[in-house]
Write a structure and sequence with these properties.
single chain, about 300 residues, 14 strands, about 35% strand
């Protein structure tokens, strides 16, 4: 099934008239693509077959295609895929044992360019979770026009951090990187919290979960991108002792097409380079002097 390349999709960007404020961001329908993590293989597939997104467009913002456990790293995603295929756990293996061997998945029934991939809804991903983890979702859409022609491609990463540690976990936007495989890192455009407010750092208290949005801009729709991110234990380390850190990496490939997809108001604001609002105070945040907040917040 063919479709137009994302880079040629025209997104209407309403420019601010001189002396007037830009109109507020709003959602609109347009083409989007979702990159997913293919199952591990001895020989990497250069490009996956692109297929329509299997769920309604409004479900896309709540779907994740990568999961990383702070205890077992990428093994959790492989085990979830094995369960989906009915191939894991094997007889005699306790699925709760972190030392259980990695799944040996039989993918011979699937074409190499059409492998099974994970798509986890938020509720399904978090159900029964008793350890810390991080979920990653991706979507790409067209942004502003480029001087050389065509339009920029904006990659929207969603990172959901679930903290079951004894100390807070911290995710800083500068610790999230997106790289076109074999080329270069992309420029980070913006970072926002779950409310769409400007994000300086995501701090997740023990027993809580929080969502971060991180946006990157590029000039092409690459077949493969690499996402790297770091979580840090947000505590005062003892003298001579560094805080605990967890480094993660995921290789994503083009997989699903939404035509039309739903570009959110936050995505529209980032594409138009509109300033994001200041974050709201949350329970447990340090007390803020009200007059120091922007007018209207």
């Amino acid at each position: 099934m063919s479709h137009r390349p994302l880079v040629f999709v025209v997104v209407v960007v309403v420019a601010a008239v001189a002396g007037c404020a830009a109109p507020p961001p709003a959602a609109y329908d347009d083409l989007k693509e979702v990159y997913c993590e293919p199952p591990p293989a001895e020989v990497e597939v250069e490009a996956l077959r692109q297929v329509p997104f299997p769920l309604p467009a409004e479900a896309e913002p709540g779907m994740f295609s990568v999961v990383r456990s702070l205890r077992t790293g990428p093994l959790e995603g492989q085990r979830r895929l094995g369960r989906m295929l009915g191939q894991w756990p094997p007889p005699g293996v306790d699925p709760a044992d972190p030392a259980a061997p990695p799944p040996d998945l039989d993918l011979t029934e699937f074409p190499r360019q059409d492998p099974p991939v994970l798509l986890l809804a938020t509720s399904d991903a978090l159900a029964g979770r008793d350890d810390s983890g991080c979920y990653l979702g991706h979507a790409a859409f067209a942004g502003q026009g480029l001087e050389a022609g065509g339009r920029e491609v904006i990659h929207h990463l969603r990172l959901l951090v679930v903290n079951q540690e004894a100390e807070p976990l911290r995710l800083a936007p500068e610790d999230v990187a997106l790289e076109v495989a074999g080329v270069a890192r992309l420029e980070r455009l913006a970072a926002a919290d779950a409310d769409g407010a400007r994000l300086d750092a995501l701090v997740v208290a023990p027993g809580e979960q929080r969502l971060a949005h991180v946006f990157f801009t590029g000039t092409q729709v690459p077949p493969t991108v690499i996402v790297r991110w770091r979580l840090t234990a947000h505590v005062q380390a003892r003298p001579g002792q560094a805080p605990r850190v967890w480094d993660f990496e995921a290789r994503l490939q083009r997989r699903f097409v939404l035509n039309p997809g739903r570009v959110s108001a936050l995505e529209d604001a980032v594409a138009r380079r509109l300033p994001l609002p200041a974050p709201r105070a949350r329970p447990g945040d340090p007390w803020r002097e009200p007059r120091m907040e922007p007018v209207g917040r």
